Amino acid sequence: MKAIIPVAGTGTRLRPFTVTQPKPLLPVAGKPILAHILDSLISVGIDEFILIIGYMGEKIREYVEEHYDVGAEFVTQEELLGLGYAIKLGLDRTDDEPVLIALGDTIIEVGLKKVISEGKNTIGVHKVEDPRRFGVVELENGRVVGLEEKPDNPRSNLAITSPYFFKSSAALREALVELVQKKIKTRGEYQLTDAMRIMLDRGEEMGVVEIEGWFDCGTVETLIYTNRHLLERAEPPDALESVVFIPPVYIGKNTTIERSVIGPNVSIGDNSVIRDAIVKDSIIGNYACAENCLLKGSILGDESAYHGRCNRMILGDHSEGGFYSD
């Protein structure tokens, strides 16, 4: 069975980190967002992937090919014309077969095996306070009877999240083709929600699965929140002299930590150096350095360095910040 994962976005809300890395490769709880998604899909038997790439797409291709022994096809999206358009590009590489769609910047916790085994068109949904920012599902007796993208007056508080499972990729493809041919756009883009509404009008039945664990890694704040949640599964690190670990904590390979308090909710990448520091609720990348500081709610990118005073620091890759004394 195939899964389509759109990963072509530029991730503007996560700058400066997405200046040097595509958003799906940003780390949370010790590995990239995309790795969490792929591992989850592989665990339920999916072994063929179509990744829709764009911004820094070669980095995504290199990461997947280096770390995964699966069937992976990479389709370049030349124009960012919406999620529906991205999915259409992927469906052009499928036959009339079941297909699962997982968003490349969203980590979810759901029983995927059950969704797939039931073989019914299924949409992941999550109850939200302000559904106007999302695609919204309207239900009647457990069945989808209405779909609307970012409505001004939502008919429910069920936001469409991920995943999407379709028993026939051909039926979804036909709806997306109609969308593009008739130039049906919402807020200037071809929306997957609008294509699903066409499917409903054609008599296709759809159900929902409610997602409890939904982590949209679209901002610095949600990235730190997701890191905090996923670290709950992390194994405690080995004890180090002069270091206090307050779980949960993830420590990468070949990382040096001295005279420091680490945690809770901290992930540190490979080959980094932490000295004389207190670090909590933070993400530190690979080959990074933090010395003589207190960091809370911070993200330090790969090959970055921070020295001195207490601070909440957001530091991109290959950057340096802090305060020094003679």
Overall description:
The chain is an alpha/beta fold and 326 residues long. The chain folds into two domains: 2-227, Alpha-Beta Complex (Spore Coat Polysaccharide Biosynthesis Protein SpsA, Chain A), CATH 3.90.550; 235-322, Hexapeptide repeat proteins (UDP N-Acetylglucosamine Acyltransferase, domain 1). It contains eight helices and 26 strands. The strands form five sheets. Strands 1, 4, 5, 6, 8, 9, 10, 11 and 12 form a nine-stranded mixed beta sheet that branches. Strands 14, 16, 17, 19, 21, 23, 24 and 26 form an eight-stranded parallel beta sheet that branches. Helix 3 (57-67) links the parallel strand 4 and strand 5 (71-76). The protein starts with a strand and ends with a strand.
Keywords:
Spore Coat Polysaccharide Biosynthesis Protein SpsA, Chain A, elongated, UDP N-Acetylglucosamine Acyltransferase, domain 1, 326 residues, 34% strand, 26 strands, alpha/beta
Topology:
Blueprint: E1 2-7, H1 17-20, E2 27-28, E3 31-32, H2 33-42, E4 48-53, H3 57-67, E5 71-76, H4 83-91, E6 99-101, E7 106-109, H5 112-118, E8 122-127, E9 135-140, E10 143-149, E11 158-166, H6 169-181, H7 192-201, E12 207-210, E13 213-216, H8 220-230, E14 243-245, E15 249-251, E16 256-258, E17 260-262, E18 266-268, E19 273-280, E20 282-284, E21 289-296, E22 299-300, E23 305-307, E24 310-311, E25 314-315, E26 320-322
Parallel strand pairs: 1-4, 1-6, 4-5, 8-12, 14-17, 15-18, 16-19, 17-19, 18-20, 19-21, 20-22, 21-23, 21-24, 22-25, 23-26
Antiparallel strand pairs: 2-3, 6-11, 7-13, 8-11, 9-10, 9-11
Helix pairs in contact: 4-6, 4-7, 6-7
